[in-house]
Amino acid sequence: MENIEFEVTEERKKFLINKIAQKVIDYRLSPVAIIFLESSKPLSFLGNQFMIFMQPFYRALFSFREYEEIAAMLEDRSNVEALICEIERLEEERDERKRTEKNSSH
Predict the structure, then answer these.
(1) What's the pTM value of the predicted model, to 2 decimals?
(2) 42 versus 94: which is more confidently predicted?
């Protein structure tokens, strides 16, 4: 397969990070994802290579272009940290909604 370089703008990075984080929250994988991402930060380049290896699985969740952009983006540790922060933020929002719903139903 031809390796295509994608330039990912800051706005696009924010969109993709939010999309990934939302999927993590939707599948209730926050703790696992955060542990995986935290432990892989020092090895972000190897994580990128693993993504390439696991491409058929990830392609089921993301378009080709999104997949390539995400793979390129996650080579940078700061983007991995941004993803962790977004997962934590969305998880906190979800928990807050649950608390509000629970309190309003009583």
Answers:
(1) 0.76
(2) 94
User: Average pLDDT of 80-86?
Assistant: 94
Exposure letters 10-30 (e unless 16+ CB within 10 A, then b): eeebeebbbebbeebbeeeeb
Q: How many domains does the chain have?
A: 1
Q: For residue 76, is it within any domain?
A: yes
Name the band, by pLDDT with cuts 50, 70 and 90, for residue 1: very low
Residue 4 within a domain:
no
In a domain, 61, yes or no: yes
CA angle 93, 40, 25 (to 5 degrees): 20
Alpha carbons 95 and 75: distance in angstroms, whole number: 30
Residue 1 placed within a domain: no
Q: Is 103 exposed, middle or buried (0-12, 13-18, 19+ CB in 10 A)?
A: exposed
